[in-house]
Every structure is written in C-alpha cells, then in structure tokens.
Design goal:
By secondary structure, the protein is of the alpha/beta class. The chain is built from 3 helices and 8 strands; from the N terminus they run βαββαβαββββ. The structure holds flavin-adenine dinucleotide.
C-alpha cells in the first residue's frame, strides 16, 4: 500500500484528492493536510463582498466530505517536506503541525 500526501485543500488539492480517492478505491492511503476546516470557492467571494451571496453559499465543511471519500484528513499545516526521509526514516515524509483546538501545536510526521 502506498501513501499519498496532498498539501492544501484549495481548488487544486481538493480536486486532486477527490479524483485520487475514486481512482484508488481505498487500495492506497490518501492523506490531505489543510489548516482550514472548510473548502471555500474563492471566485465567488466577490459576490459575498457585494452582498449577493452569503458566506455559507460559498463554503462547505471538509471533514464530512473526506470521511465519505475515505480520505485521511488532518487539520494541520505542513512545516517541512522530506522527500528522501532523514536519518530516522528511510521513506519520505512531511512534518505537520496541527492547528485545531484539541491537538493544536502538536507536531507529527506523515
Ligand atoms: C476573489 C478571487 C476571485 C477569483 N476568481 C477567479 C475566477 O473567476 N476564475 C479563476 O480561474 N480563478 C479565480 N481566482 C483564482 C483562483 O481562486 C486560484 O487560482 C485558485 O484558488 C488557486 O488554487 P490552488 O489550489 O492552487 O490554491 P488555493 O486555492 O490558494 O489553495 C491553497 C491551499 O493551501 C493551503 N495551505 C497554505 N499553506 C499550507 C501549509 N503550510 N500546509 C498545508 N496547506 C497549506 C491553504 O490553506 C489553501 O487552502 C480568484 C481568486 C480570488 C481570491
């Protein structure tokens, strides 16, 4: 089983993860790291700004979507990337720092 780590749940990251989860059908682990708890459709922010859309019309919660897709979602930010591992890990990894309340400030490799 391979592990694929996608950084950022913006337009690119979220699209990549949606396709990967369907194509790999849980045969490989797909992880997404995002400091945000919501996906926000940035191009429509302009309509929120002028009062033609509400903020809730341009965003949705990431956690339920990723649960349904079978994607391992971590609300965290990437702080360093180690594609060739280091002296303790022979495989590549990304160091992350959690940003959500319960685990805030905790650092892990994934
Ligand atoms: C007001 C506005 C209107 C726009 N209108 C249009 C339009 O009409 N048409 C169009 O084609 N484009 C438009 N764009 C541009 C479009 O939104 C961007 O091109 C697009 O969002 C880029 O997608 P992305 O996934 O590369 O980056 P982003 O959408 O910026 O996503 C990057 C993600 O990475 C996350 N991230 C940052 N640091 C870290 C870290 N250390 N670890 C993990 N995650 C991290 C961020 O939280 C973010 O969610 C508009 C942009 C804005 C702001």
């Amino acid at each position: 089983m391979s592990k694929i780590v996608v950084l950022g749940a913006g337009i690119s990251g979220h699209t990549a993860v949606s396709y990967l989860s369907k194509a790999l059908k849980k045969k490989h682990e797909v992880i997404i790291i995002s400091p945000n708890s919501n996906f926000q459709w940035l191009p429509s922010n302009i309509w929120v700004g002028v009062g033609l859309m509400s903020i809730d019309q341009v965003k949705f919660k990431l956690a339920p979507v990723y649960k349904k897709l079978g994607v391992n979602y971590k609300q965290a930010k990437a702080i360093s990337i180690h594609p060739e591992g280091d002296n303790k890990n022979i495989k590549g990894f990304v160091k992350i720092e959690y940003v959500s309340d319960e685990e805030k400030g905790e650092k892990r490799n994934c």
